[in-house]
Known about the structure:
The protein is mainly alpha-helical. The chain has one helix spanning 2-99.
Amino acid sequence: MIEEHVVEQVKSMKRLEQMMxxxxxxxxxxxxxxxxxxxxxxxxxxIEEANIAWDDxxxxxxxxxxxxxxxxxxxxxxxxxxxxxxxxxxxxxxxxKDLH
Length: 100
């Protein structure tokens, strides 16, 4: 009877040890899963930040392009305004030559 009691105690201890190991394993798995979720969130945040930065770069490029177009149009208009009197004078001179 004492032997049976000792055997039962050993079995109970083994079950208790197994339960403790299972619990420890469950905690480790949960910690690993939480770490993976944290890393995934960080990766998503990095991607979002990179996308925002890229959008900012694209917006700046577009703004620079539009500014360059306006400046070019303005320069062409100024050149045209500067050339008008010169061309008019050339026209008048040519006409005088043609009439004489």
